[in-house]
Amino acid sequence: MGLQREISQFDLTSIIVGAIVGADIYIASALTAGLVGPFSIVLWVVAGLFAITLAMIFAYCSYYTPRVGGPFAYVSEALDDFYGFLAGWSMWVAELLALPVFAIAFTNYLQTLVPLTPAAGVTVRAAFVVSLTLVNIVGVRAAGRLNDVLTLIKLFPLLLLIIAGFGIFILRPEMLIGNYTPLLPLGLENISHALVLIFWAYAGFEMGTLPAGEVQDPQKAIPRAIISGILIVALFYLSTNFVLFGLVNWTQLEQNPVPLVTAGTILFGSIGALIMTVGALFSVAGSDESGMLGSARLAYAMAIDGLFPRAFAKVHPNYGTPYVALIVQGVLAFVLSNIGNLPGMISFAVFNLAFSFLLTCFSLIVLRSDRATSLRGQRILPLAGIAICLFLLFSTTTFDKVAGALVVLAGIPVYLYYSPKADMRHLKDLFLSEEAVLLRRLEAKETYLANFLNLIHRILRWTRG
Hints:
It is found in: Cell membrane. Keywords: Cell membrane, Membrane, Transmembrane, Transmembrane helix. With about 475 residues, the chain is mostly helical. The protein folds into 2 domains: about 10-420, Up-down Bundle (Amino acid/polyamine transporter I), CATH 1.20.1740; about 430-465. Helix content is about 75%, strand content about 0%. The chain has 20 helices and no strands. It has helices at about 10-20, 25-35, 40-65, 70-80, 80-110, 120-140, 140-170, 175-180, 190-200, 220-245, 250-255, 260-270, 270-305, 325-340, 340-365, 380-395, 400-420, 420-430, 435-445, 450-465. Helix 1 (about 10-20) crosses helix 7 (about 140-170) and helix 6 packs antiparallel against helix 14 (about 325-340). The radius of gyration is 23 Å and the shape is globular. The chain starts with 8 loop residues before the first helix and ends with a helix. About 50% of the residues are buried. The model is unreliable at about 1-5 and about 420-450 (pLDDT under 50).
């Protein structure tokens, strides 16, 4: 039984916006305020350009490969299953780490309204994960409709904050100027680290490519949804942060775990604080619902290609959803939400995402076709994307680099175990026979090294041309 195509372009755009706009906008501003001050608004612009560039690359890849799996599908099609697995493996790890982040954030925001004991906090996290897992199991249409509602609800407080904030600035421009002066009080030392944290707030556009097997007219709907979704998010992020840093001095934001609640209080008093807190709860719930929807489809795509446990490819007989993958990731999310910490999981997730995005950028170089004249910038976009991904990788902490490399290496034995046994016999023959090794190297077009060298050759040829 295959996946059902019940997600419209509007649903998919809502999924993308819902996946991006989560807890990040409610906490990232305070984190970056302590690193670069009001200069953060410039970094929100830069990170938005990074995200738009990478989103365009994903949109173009989905045009050429409109099937379930996202980066796994693109890289497998362009290079081979080995690199495709590494792309899917890295993204799955990153998305898996994001799920407990939202469960923790939801509980933390709820505590501003209702004091929770440690045991109650565990219960809330469990109920949060279980409820959203059940929504996704019951059906992709139900998940898509729920995400539409959650997305509209979560954007309303931000829209209210933006409108009221701009109104205040018209009446009191000295407030805006005073809080933005000086623009860069802490220097440039922490810019790269701050940019990594802000980029995490934009991450989520990749989720729109994962349920491609359930999207109506995916070749047209996915690129349009990705581009429109990231533009909507960028507009809200920039406007929200412009208002936030204009209302609240960066020295106050630096120590503030709930910066938008503070901004809401300045504008509307206690009712403003309540609106922003409730908005945060819906925002976090919407992001986790979108994340579950996308990451389960990624595991499903890898399983049907024989590269993940076969159970992950099981589709519910009544609801047509990959219920085993949803249950497994729900259990893992709950466990991690009780033993992990927010900064560590976020930073490590960025490293894994950047690695997966890097392979996706390479795949567009191979997939692109000059006949698709409607897709502008196909030559320059992947090169820009490669530079962005390398910057993000090198801007993470030393621990993230070491641990991330170990995670990538850990994926290799997983691939070797689950890859088709015919491929394993083929590798054995190559090792046993020198003649076979030489012959295969001369003739093969699908070996890992040949694909890599072919990719380098394409890049050199296009840069010279």
